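Complex record, three chains
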Amino acid sequence: MDSNTSLLGIFITMALVNNLILSKFLGLCPFFGVSKKLKNAVSMGAAVVVVMFAASVVSWLLYYGILEAYDIMYMRTVIFILVIASLVQILELTIRRTNVNLYNALGIYLPLITTNCAVLGVTFINVDNGFGLAETVVSSLGAGIGFTLVLAMMSGIRERLDIADVPKSFEGIPIAFIVAMLLGISFIAFGGLV
Amino acid sequence: MSNKPSIKKELVPVLFLTIVVCIAVVALTLTNDATHQPIEDGKASATVALLSELFPEMTDYSLDDSTAIYVIKQDSDIVGYSFSTSGNGYGGAIDILVGINKTDFSEGNIILRGISIISQGETPGLGTKILEDPFLSQFQGLNTDNLALSQNGGHIDAITGATISSSAVTDAVSSSVAEKIDDLRQLNLEVS
Amino acid sequence: MSFFKNFNKGIFKENPVLVLLLGLCPTLAVSTSLDNALGMSAAVLFVLISANIIVSLIRNFTPEKVRIPVFIVIIATLVTIVDLSMQAFLPELSESLGMFIPLIVVNCIILGRAEAFASKNSLKDSVADALGMGVGFGVAIFLVSFFRQLLGTGEVSLFGVGISLPGLSSNPMAIFILPYGAFMVLGCLLATMRYLEVRKNG
């Protein structure tokens, strides 16, 4: 990406034009797994935004501070995923101490954020695009918010689908895929924003 | 003395993890040593391939590090210059290699050799037409004064139905030429 | 369970993509051509088998507390080895598959099998499980790629050899090559499987 692209442009691109779920195929497992109740979807999304933001900043600092300085860029996969795993662990402990209800609601989905390809994917995107620190902050926030947006939209639609007349073979997951396709097509419109 | 066994219990897992990490680091360092050179060689030959596509007569090239401009040589003569740029296409970044004929670089006398699309993610069948000849060949031998879309007064006809891709390429090339022109003039004086 | 049974379940009954719905990201992202599908399956299979072997071998020494970090380090190392090797010796494939090669590290299939199976089962069983899951993944990604490439470009090809449908190749349905088409193909595939299963059961 052009380094002249504005911060707002990056935010919108990561959130809408190159939406992680609909365009880049990242974060699909939670997308199809979690999204039945709106409240859970939003909580999950918020947790992802927090981890994505923290992981992006920390991994960016480590990449340019240590990996590039010592020419060991090939260690990035190992380092980045360990950063994410640690942050998720910290987040989990924090939520358990402060809000037990939220902790119970999120259940197993919290540790699963570690294996959410969206989080690791965004850390790679930031570095591959040559973003500076400010751009990394904006990009990770945009990506996380876009992810949450689509997650929330999907859960709202699936609540309705539960009481709709869906062909038997398509009930449940298959129709969710078709919905994802339609959502994706509607998001093409955002291409004109930037 | 009841502290001793519990300290040991805490230590063993950490020690285990540390050993695993050390083995991992060794394995990765060895792999990197083995693959480092082939990766660099691969990138170098990819660059040669791209530059030769634009300058078929090329026998040698050198890279001026400070300006990131390739100097294209045929035997001992310089035939042109090349540099890469990037545009914001419909599906992300479009990486472009721009080739310029050797000239005196005076006003109105900057002629493109052509351009090469290094990588893109445009819509298959529509935006990907930027890889095809009717569009690409428009840049061959083009005077940079005419480097704009026809609808904006230049000579480049956009691809029907792929205006974003077409203008992304055209804008990227024209702004990169504008950016590099001083460096090109300077470099031209130095190497001639 | 016998070797064959462990292997078989990964392909049909517990197919990681089509039944367990794991590893969706690479399946949809990379399925634009059969070459890509083959490359990705090979990479995943290698990591899966290696990880299962290592985890199973050390399963009696691994302290409970650090299990997950240890698995992550092992898998991340294996993935980096595959990533670097591909960049060096198969650069075009590496470019095609892009960031999804390093993303294999968070492919739920691999960590899932290490955690759920290899850490509790013998070496022989773990290898059978890995083979089955890896092949099952390959079958799924192949199916999706086949339809996407055929309908989206009008031709299918593997290692440069291919067939093209004259009507389609001049006017392919581009939507299948785009992300949205991937969702549609997999959705229909899952629906078809559900239909066949319902019919089989009566």
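Note: The interface with chain C takes residues 12-14, 16-17, 20-21, 24, 27-28, 31-32, 34-35, 38-39, 42, 46, 119, 123-126 of chain B (CB under 8 Å).
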